[in-house]
Fold this sequence. Notes:
InterPro entries: Aminotransferase_I/II_large, AspAT/PAT-like, NHTrfase_class1_PyrdxlP-BS, PyrdxlP-dep_Trfase, PyrdxlP-dep_Trfase_major. The protein is an alpha/beta fold. It is built from twelve helices and twelve strands.
Amino acid sequence: MHxxxxxxxxxxxxxxxxxxxxxxxxxxxxxxxSIGQPDFDVPDSIKEAAIEAIRDGKNAYSxxxxxxxxxxxxxxxxxxxxxxxxxxxFVSSGTSGGLMLAxxxxxxxxxxVIFLDPFFVMYPALVRMCGGVPVPVDSYPDFDLDVEKIAxxxxxxxxxxxxxxxxxxxxxxxxxAELKAVAALAADKKIALLSDEIYSRFFYDxxxxxxxxxxxxxxxxxxxxxxxxxxxxxVGYVHGPSEIVRTMLKIQQYSFVCAPQPAQWGAxxxxxxxxxxxxxxxxxKRDFIVESLSDCYEIARPGGAFYVFPKAPxxxxxxxxxRAIGQGLLIIPGNIFSSRDTHFRISFAASDxxxxxxxxxxxxxAGASV
Length: 370
């Protein structure tokens, strides 16, 4: 290793998802069910708002906390949901930026952070960057949020419980009772509760519920990347107790500085855009994938996001993914998101044609009739 490289960078590897993306570039006309971003484009009205901001000269730094108009719109939306006396908001440089700021603001070296396994690939890496200790809690086979398992993982070093519902990579949504129980546990133990809600608008069965409804100290991270197909615009937002928000802003000032100003004006317009048609479409895609594969794969039915996390036939999810790639199908091995190598992730954020072709290949690989 080069002598200048910091030790902290050796505690995690590059994302395995990027390796699949590299493979995609080498394949001719692959069936790509690997990408975790919407398959529709940014709505035109959002584009126009950003273009108008650029033409109007709104191209400089914004305030670190975000433009006042967007912050106020988010604040009003949050206030309508929660009656917390102490809840502030700010605009982050994407939800990934928000996650990093949250970790840097709250996690000391040696502090433990609990989250479910399977997990979003960034979670353990971010914890380790802060010198913290990732504590994944096994949630197989149904990927439920089990408060007893969470409670059993708590030690005197536990600083944070990190929730993600709807979840990446499983698409599973925690129930209101599960979220209420974990929220109460965190409050009782005086543990920080961080809720990653980037898929909050991708909720297909019932209504979305946040643990912030039951614990007024919950720090919530959300954004526009997934819901409005704005993954490259890097506009997220955070709301939580004011002292935590002030600390996160202090770090943002010396790191990301601010989210891109023209993109913030686009996000302001995005708050007026109805997503009902897209969500109905994704519910239909979810149903198609689950119904088409449930007879030949073990699948926990996803209630949100745009992922399915089936169990792979055989002993290795990674080996199965290699076979799939050999047939021109790009999916993600489950061991990227987990300590287990038993599953694989499908993204159904794809065209109907891609989904039909993907189903044919997966059924063929499982030895089922097409």
